[in-house]
Amino acid sequence: MLIIRPLQDNDLEALYAMAQSAGKGLTTLPADRELLQRKIRHARDTFDQRCAPEAGLYLFALEDTELQRCVGISGIQARVGLDEVFYNYRLSVTVNASRELGVHVRTPTLHLSNDMTDTSEICSLLLSDSHRGGGNGLLLSRCRFMFLDQFRRHFSEKVFAEMRGVSDKEGRSPLWDALGRQFFDMDFTEADMLSGLGNKSFIAELMPKFPIYLPMLPDEARSVIGRVHDNTAPALKMLQAEGFNFNGMVDIFDGGPVVEAFVHNIRTVRESTDRIVMIRSIKPAVDQVDEQADRSEIMVCNGSFQNFRVTTVPANCVGIETISLSQPVASALGVEAGDRVRLAPLKDTGRNPTYSRRDADHAGRSSRG
Amino acid sequence: MLIIRPLQDNDLEALYAMAQSAGKGLTTLPADRELLQRKIRHARDTFDQRCAPEAGLYLFALEDTELQRCVGISGIQARVGLDEVFYNYRLSVTVNASRELGVHVRTPTLHLSNDMTDTSEICSLLLSDSHRGGGNGLLLSRCRFMFLDQFRRHFSEKVFAEMRGVSDKEGRSPLWDALGRQFFDMDFTEADMLSGLGNKSFIAELMPKFPIYLPMLPDEARSVIGRVHDNTAPALKMLQAEGFNFNGMVDIFDGGPVVEAFVHNIRTVRESTDRIVMIRSIKPAVDQVDEQADRSEIMVCNGSFQNFRVTTVPANCVGIETISLSQPVASALGVEAGDRVRLAPLKDTGRNPTYSRRDADHAGRSSRG
Amino acid sequence: MWLVRPAQPGDLKAILALAEGIGPRLSSTLPRKDEALAAKIEQSVRAFQNAGGTTGPDETLRFLFVLENTDTGDVRGVAGIDSSAGHGQPFYNYRKDALIHASHELGVSNRVDVLYPSHALTGHTLLCAFTIDPELKGSEAFELLSRARLMFIASHRPLFSDHTVVEIQGVQTENGEVPFWDSLGRHFFNMDFETADQHSGALSKTFIAELMPPNPIYVTLLTPEAQAALGQAHEKTRATYELLQREGFQAGAYLDIFDAGPVLEARTDSLKTIVSSLSGKLHGSPTDDGERCLISGGIQAQFRCTVTSMQEALTGDIKVPVKAWHCLGLDAGDSVRVSPC
Amino acid sequence: MWLVRPAQPGDLKAILALAEGIGPRLSSTLPRKDEALAAKIEQSVRAFQNAGGTTGPDETLRFLFVLENTDTGDVRGVAGIDSSAGHGQPFYNYRKDALIHASHELGVSNRVDVLYPSHALTGHTLLCAFTIDPELKGSEAFELLSRARLMFIASHRPLFSDHTVVEIQGVQTENGEVPFWDSLGRHFFNMDFETADQHSGALSKTFIAELMPPNPIYVTLLTPEAQAALGQAHEKTRATYELLQREGFQAGAYLDIFDAGPVLEARTDSLKTIVSSLSGKLHGSPTDDGERCLISGGIQAQFRCTVTSMQEALTGDIKVPVKAWHCLGLDAGDSVRVSPC
């Protein structure tokens, strides 16, 4: 069984191995044992409520219960920019027009911004190569939204994710070469690493503070602003399906997009419903449900802060008021018969028993003109 | 009967009378016959497709068919900032922090922005005093969203409204006095009028271009940024209920908020459905529908661009696939039996026959922790 | 002889021909259309009329002088003075300044050059519109035309500001490309350099307020060609530049917003012509020998300036050949001002 | 006699006592903690040692001088020179400049004053840390302490920059309020003026880069009190200010970022002490009569400067009373430099 649970101290080696194989590009989780240890400690302090929930770092592990090993990780930082200054560029437009001359020019412009300060960030998604596919990435990503939904008061109304921007195989970023390097006099990877280590005062010291007019940058640099690295395209697609939008904020180094969503608009949150747990001893008969629904999986989570758990069950376990779980699954989730659990579909299968009524409203929608 | 239709040339006098009684504060429709005539002509060119739909000004009249007179107006400008430069301040935050000294300061900052350029604006809502109440304001406002929904391709994905900011009875704006006046050396009403007349190059010439750090402004000025005039509070509330949010953009003169929404998130749009017209000759029996639904009203619109019409009918006219309209209503809408019309509830009555299924999903939501 | 005198409506054709014979760059202060130029001459005529009045330093006077060959009557050059740069509107420049971006922790210290939009030279007296027949470049007539303006300033000092500035044409390639414009201005003005330059001469400067990017510009983001052009004078301007340097003009932090050419600055009262000029009474000299010098006389519309040889200048008596008297339209005993070449 | 000489570790207590006796403002260049001050003296000792070496203008030397009463051995004043302001980090100032906001159509033209963050004075030589027993203000000793630094610069000119600047304390009310700080800096630094000022003296300037608002500031949005304080010197600094003006220092466009006090600027080679100073050989004078002048001798750590009367200075011979020789630690025939008081 695969189950989501809070990260633990003994996950360090598994985490280190994953960080190592991820290589560059994941600046929030560099392959640095001491730093990872610090992150785990912060996460433990958060779940054990030794730090304010609003200042917490929520790291979730995907555990393979057979292997008894963490095979993936994902996280939420409750607030960014609390101890350090959090920078983005905001892609804005400057319009200059002269009616007298009939000239009207729009100049895309980057403004240095701290506007994401105090916002919750979803971050640090890593999945072991051995466990790619089968919706495990989705589970790791979307379990966070179930947590966000359950404990909204600890998070900001809006959450965001920074997506890795465009760079080549050698780690060269076109935007960095055209802009950052002019001011920092170092390689992108070095700057990115320094920034990832939380050492951000050099940004305040070296960063250009005045707006950057994009037409002054070479085409190659301009074209990557707001674009993601090819490796990150699937993650972006997943977040977009979840309701995240690009709203003009980009990374100051590589121009990667920030995508954001209001918690109440996130699909997982919108589609979540409650059910009462029933424990069953036998598998449901196949003919109880239609074939299509049979294949889809449902995420189920308990309502615990300290011992938060999520796993998936087949959709045909879900009834109108109840959900029937096997005893091992119920134990893994730490719930008993009669407890309330929360569920959401794992994949966007178009239709599943829990949600069919909602979709019906749209069935009559015809295209007109 | 009250019906929404495109504004016509002969509405000028009614419009002038409404503009006069509205007084200051409605800068897009000043009581100036020539200017109003120009607006009507622009609207006529738009509906008659003599100008590009994307550059159009869509002005709708609320006609009292008994009085044969326009008793209200509302509008959509398909794109702002096309011929002139459209300015806002963006309320942003500047964070300065020194870890060494343990100082972390957030400074709210106004940045001059042209970011609403090319966005659709809903504007110009005016209702004759004689017709206030009874949902007429709602109809005038929300009919625009039905139009937006039907002709989305002519509008931007996001639409916005500028809300009137705080000023006192004499028309003094605290933000203007603290900021604008320092640079423009004129009264708020004069600047507002100049701007309303479309003469905006003086803004480019006189406006401060560098960011304004709010702590440098007096409390009185700071406190009105993003706040609406008391008279505008109901309109703001209506738009918020419709799904519009304040996202940091404010008016450069009085600090009034800009509220914005993606078209697909607007409640009227989300709640709209299609029905086939049936013409009935007798009223439906009261016992056909439950009492609560009976009281609620439904907006119905046709699908015509040039002859767009909206009116309201009782909710009990709505069936599962059809809507039954009396012949006068069908005629007013310009539809016949078998035509498809679009409907949306006029008020947020919590529940109505058309939408009850959607709400059901949320019924099981319990509060947990 | 060569004579510098106020421009007259009758000089229109000759000035137009001159302006057409030269490159495009002049246009920013000298229009090339009949009507606009006629208006400019008319403005100058009014300025010379008003120059004796109660005009305060707030009102801009825009003087236009021509260089005439008195033997042939040909007009071979033109030059101007604006008493107050910007004439009531902002006078736009970039001010080049440096910020130091240093990180103590990283041990890095970078010098970051920035161009700030500036109006600091607004209201300074501006020498402008200098245009001369290329054949005369570097000649005595060339010097006369340029410096006659300073003789005029010396004789009408209260009309002018304490600082005087001159814009020098910046770098332009042989095929007409202006690297600074191509790297910066073109993106915002959406027109070619020549068009912008023409507008700058012909219209109100409102279009600059409307179209110029309001924020400072990082030099490092300009193209290398544009960076190289900052503060560089066009090679054709060498003679002018050197003459102005001898006068005491120096390039400072200010650059032209269109081509990044240098703006030369000087304290008006320190200019060599003004410091070295002497007033005296006109007397005849029997010979053509003597030191060459500029000599001017007459006020306002009667102002004339020429080059002559001068024999002595002791005791306030200035002895020059009588033909110079005629050229200046003066007689013995009239007040004149001289300055050595 | 009064003597100015390099500060020594043994001067620590005396300097500390001086700094404590004066207002808080000094601290920005003179720390008031034992340890920090000891480090600063140590830094100065090294600077005097290195002053003869191959040090280029890139390396900062931070000299500290004391004013000693040779009769009592008391130290009654201290003054410093930083060879390069900012010493490798930015030297922060505001540069006051004006933009013209004009609308042609409305016929409006407004002058908008703007404060730009500037590092333009980074690397200029900075006179700093001037502190003197209040009893001596305006006396000959006062002039000696201030100008001795210029005598040192004259004798060690290659170590210093072409421009020299001095920061003058700005307006502060009797109850310690600094109007400019209260209107601007306080909002961003979130500390009172004195704390910021102390940090500025004691730490690296990283905190300024981190906390100072990066964008230009509109003067019109400052409080009226802060606007009135722009470029105004604290009344207590009058004697210093006047002395520096006599030297040729002028207030320009630069202001202190904390209190908006003026930054005085001068071309190093134009400073009166440097221009007027003469080198010569030391000779005895039989009398105490003669013109009062500063006299200095010795290089690097041996540098000494005092005030004496001088009888003649013809033919390069400088005749001063023998007690001045002793004070300078020199003998007949040694090279000295004099400059009239």
Automatic annotation (TrEMBL), chains A, B:
Key words, A-Z: Acyltransferase, Arginine metabolism, Transferase
Ranges of biased composition (kind: Basic and acidic residues): 356-369
EC primary class: transferase
EC number of the protein: 2.3.1.109
UniProt-recorded Gene Ontology molecular function terms: arginine N-succinyltransferase activity
Family matches, as InterPro entries: Acyl_CoA_acyltransferase (IPR016181), Arg_succinylTrfase_AstA/AruG (IPR007041), Arginine_N-succinylTrfase (IPR017650)
Keyword presence, Amino-acid biosynthesis: no
Chain residue ranges for the region called Disordered: 344-369
One BP term from GO: L-arginine catabolic process
Keyword Transferase attached: yes
Protein name: Arginine N-succinyltransferase
UniProt gene name: astA
TrEMBL record, chains C, D:
Organism placement in taxonomy: Bacteria, Pseudomonadati, Pseudomonadota, Gammaproteobacteria, Pseudomonadales
GO terms classed as biological process: L-arginine catabolic process
KW Ribonucleoprotein (keyword) present: no
Coiled coil ranges: none
Assigned keywords, A-Z: Acyltransferase, Arginine metabolism, Transferase
InterPro entries (alphabetical): Acyl_CoA_acyltransferase (IPR016181), Arg_succinylTrfase_AstA/AruG (IPR007041)
Keyword Endoplasmic reticulum: no
Gene Ontology terms for molecular function: arginine N-succinyltransferase activity
Protein name stated in the entry: Arginine N-succinyltransferase
